[in-house]
Each structure stands twice: as C-alpha cells, then as structure tokens.
TrEMBL record:
It is an enzyme of class 4 (lyase). Homodimer. It comes from Wenjunlia tyrosinilytica. The keyword Secreted does not apply. GO terms for biological process: lysine biosynthetic process via diaminopimelate. Its EC number is 4.1.1.20. The active site is at residue 375. Residues 1-37 are annotated as: Disordered. InterPro entries: Ala_racemase/Decarboxylase_C, DAP_deCOOHase_LysA, De-COase2_N, Orn/DAP/Arg_de-COase, PLP-binding_barrel. This is Diaminopimelate decarboxylase. Its cofactor is pyridoxal 5'-phosphate.
Length: 446
C-alpha cells in the first residue's frame, strides 16, 4: 500500500469480512484481520478505534491488550439483532469466560446482552459490571454450595443443572429461602463431537460436562416434581472454535428430542477467524443454520438463548508488544517480544495460529519466529510469520486476541499481567491497569 494514503481496510458491518475481495494487497489482507474500522494511516501505522498504535504503546506501555469498543458493540448488536430478527423470543448471553473484565461486562450489558457466568468469580465481576441478574445464566460442572448460594441470592435468572448434586444442593438452599422459586435448565450431552481441538470439545460421550440423554431425562423428571426448582428448559453446548454449522444444527435436533420446554439454550462455540485460511461461518450463516433447524423442531413459542463467547470478542482485541531482541540462529530468525505465554496461552494450550504485524509498517517481510520472553521453548506467539525487517524497539501487533487471552493470562516468570485499553472514536481509556510488582506480592503473607 502506498504511503501517504489512509486506507479504510474493513468495510462497515454487517458486510462479510471473512471473504476479502479478490485482488486485495497483502497489507490489506493482514490489516483485514484487525477490528472492523481499523485503518492504516499515511505513515504506514495501524490506527485502531481511531487511536494510533504508537501513541497507545507510549501511553499505556507494552504488552497491552487493546479493544476496539465500537467493534465490540457492533458485534453485540449484530448478534442480538440477528437472532431477534430470526427468532423474536430470544436472548444472547455473552459467555463471559472469553473476556471476564468489568469493562467488557459493562459494555455488553449496556448493549442489552445477558451474561453467562461459570463461577462465583465471574458472577461477582458480572454484577460489578452492571449485568442484570435476570439475564444471568449460571454454569459449571462443579458448582460449589457457596457459588449456588451466591447465584440464588443474586437473583440469577437461570442456573444450569450439570449433575444430580446441583439439584440436591439447590433444593436445600431454596428450602431456606422460603417463597423463592429458581428457574433452571438441564445441560444435555448429545454425543456430538465437533471438529476442533480435543480440549475444547464438550458435547461428546465421555465429556465431563452435562448429562447424557438418558440421565438428562431422569433429571428432567425429577425437576418436574420439584416445588422450588422451576424447570424452564434444556441447554446444550458442544465445543468451541467450531468452523462449520453442522454440529450446531445437530445439537438443536438432539435437545428437541427431550420434549417441549419454555427455554432452549443452544450454547456458544462459533469459531473466530484467526488466520487468512480460517473460514468460519458468519454470524448470519450461523444464526440461519441454528434457527433454520429450530423452526423445524422447537416449539414456536419457546425462548431461544445462545451463548457466544469467542466469536463475540476475539476480533475486537489486539495485543501490542515491543521487540526486545532479534536473534539470527542458523536459518531461523527469532524475534522476541516483551510478552508471550503470560498474556496469550492460546498457542501453547491449543496450538492456535496467530498472524502478526509490525504495527508501524504493516505488511511484507520474510518469515520469522515470533517468540515470547518466558522460560519455555513452547512460548511462541507465531511460528513462521512474515515481518518486515523487525528491529528491537519495533511495535508488534497480534490481531484477534480478544478471546480467552485475558482470562488465561498468568504470572509465569513473575510477569505482570497487561492492561486492557478500550479505544473508541479516537479516544482511549484503560479499563484494567497493568499489574505492578507490588501486586505480585499482595497475597504473600511472609
Ligand atoms: N457456553 C458454555 C456452557 C461454554 O462452556 C462455553 C465455552 C461457551 C458457551 C462459549 O463458547 P465459545 O463461543 O467461546 O466457543 N479456554 C479455551 C476455550 C474454552 C471454552 C469453554 N467453554 C480457549 O482458550 O480456547
């Protein structure tokens, strides 16, 4: 792309950005992985949410997780409106494990989404972020008595039954809160194994999540006889980073066989586009597939809930790093940055591939090994990613890091977890500050 021009790389929503126009340049292709609305300025640098990357890095330091707030809001609306257009009695609940920080809860609650929480911690953060208790869906394969009590006390709309002990505990808790009735769903394991990383499949026989169909029927029968637990319906979630619609459609058919209910929660799982080659269904294709089957097999009056996590937040996030050192070792060039598996475990845990750019000179270059600073050879951010003559001090941007990187960030090697910075219309605001060395000692008692 010639310098001196500002290129708006991403067309406005809801155009299909997963299929870039034929003939687009390598720079446009790369920039097209960044949040919608990202531009490459006249100086060749990325501008995210109207904010120049170098200014962001100077102000907030690196590593930093940058979130384009407009992109996040647009995605939330695209999901909520898309589902409501197809199935009016519906709700999108953000699976908050994908990005559990108060700032994100606040934005997505503000957009009217419900929130899926999977622990007392996420429940606490959701409430602090302004979530409407009625829109909470409370998950967990091992919810403790304390967590169930927190959910009931908060007035959570739905608690998802994952085992028979959940029923016993809830019965006990509700017996103490006279007059209170609690809406519940039964999580069904439909024996569907989608094509994704084994660690993130959940719907297959042998999964630790949910109840196989026969047991689900037993739980349903028991809940129908309960005075205090109101069986609202069933739940299914078959896995994450799923790149075709077929497993979702099969899951809807599977839960329909359990009978007629007021609520069907169809889970999350739609994949994100991390690399040029990924071709996930668009939100619209996904909803068409889901609702297409729902129209055929679910009661017309039922409420449909979905729980997107990754596909809600992944594309809105960008990780910024500084190059610390460049090492030429035989045929390989190692470009080591000031972050790594402390702030992005997706590569080490799931082998996820990420692209990357020199944020101030987007595009071009020869393949290098982009590595982190942690004491492990598996600490790689991207193996074989082209970067144009990277040098110490260069700013590196890794796109599509909005999902699960914040949640899985850690203090390996005493790493201080990075800040989260929201950018919108040229203004930036930190919603999480960087950890300090003092923070690292906060819980130490000696
Ligand atoms: N609903 C339930 C009940 C879930 O367990 C999950 C994700 C979701 C919804 C959202 O799925 P999504 O739309 O994000 O695919 N730690 C892994 C991801 C684990 C996902 C677990 N459950 C990672 O970093 O890739």
């Amino acid at each position: 792309m010639p310098r001196g021009t500002t290129t708006t790389v991403s067309p406005a929503e809801p155009l299909d950005r997963t299929r870039p126009p034929a003939g687009s340049s390598a720079t446009e292709r790369l920039a097209g992985l960044f949040p919608p609305g990202t531009t490459v300025g006249p100086d060749g640098a990325l501008v995210i949410g109207g904010c120049h990357v170098e200014e962001l890095a100077e102000r907030y330091g690196t590593p930093a997780l940058v979130v384009d707030e407009n992109a996040l809001r647009a995605r939330a609306r695209r999901y909520a409106d898309g589902l409501a257009d197809r199935w009016p009695n519906s709700r999108v609940a953000f699976a908050s494990k994908a990005f559990p920080c108060t700032g994100v809860y606040r934005v997505l609650s503000d957009e009217g989404l419900g929130i899926d929480v999977a622990s007392g911690g996420e429940l606490t953060l959701a409430l602090a972020g302004g979530a409407d208790p009625e829109g909470l869906v409370v998950h967990g394969n091992a919810k403790t008595e304390e967590e169930l009590r927190m959910a009931v006390d908060a007035g959570a709309g739905l608690i998802v039954i994952d085992n028979f002990d959940d029923i016993d505990r809830l019965e006990r808790i509700l017996a103490e809160t006279r007059g209170r009735e609690q809406g519940v769903l039964v999580r069904v394991t439909p024996d569907i194994r989608p094509d994704t990383h084994e660690a993130i499949t959940t719907g297959q026989r042998g999964s630790k999540f949910g109840l196989l169909v026969d047991q689900a029927r037993e739980a349903i029968a028991r809940l129908r006889g309960s005075d205090r637990l109101r069986l609202d319906g069933v739940h299914v979630h078959v896995g994450s980073q799923i790149l075709d619609t077929e497993p979702f459609a099969r899951a809807v058919e599977a839960v329909a066989e359990l009978g007629e209910f007021a609520v069907y929660d169809l889970g999350g799982g739609l994949g994100a586009r991390y690399t040029y080659d990924d071709r996930p269904p668009t939100v619209e294709e996904y909803l068409d597939a889901l609702v297409g089957v729902a129209r055929r097999v679910l009661p017309a009056k039922a409420r449909v809930v979905i729980e997107p996590g990754r596909s809600m937040v992944a594309e809105a996030g960008v990780s910024l790093y500084r190059v610390v050192t460049v090492k030429h070792s035989g045929a390989e060039t190692f470009v080591a940055v000031d972050g790594g598996m402390g702030d992005n475990l997706e590569v080490s845990l799931y082998g996820q591939r990420f692209e990357a750019a020199v944020a101030t000179r987007v595009g071009g270059g020869r393949p290098v090994r982009l590595v982190g600073r942690h004491c492990e050879s598996g600490d790689v951010l991207s193996a074989g990613v082209p970067l144009p003559d990277p040098r110490p001090g260069d700013l590196i941007a890794v796109p599509v890091t909005g999902a699960y990187t914040y949640s899985l960030s850690n203090n390996y090697n005493g790493a201080r977890r990075p800040p989260v910075v929201m950018c919108r219309d040229g203004e930036s605001r930190p919603v999480v500050r960087r950890e300090t060395y003092e923070d690292l000692m906060r819980r130490d008692l000696v």
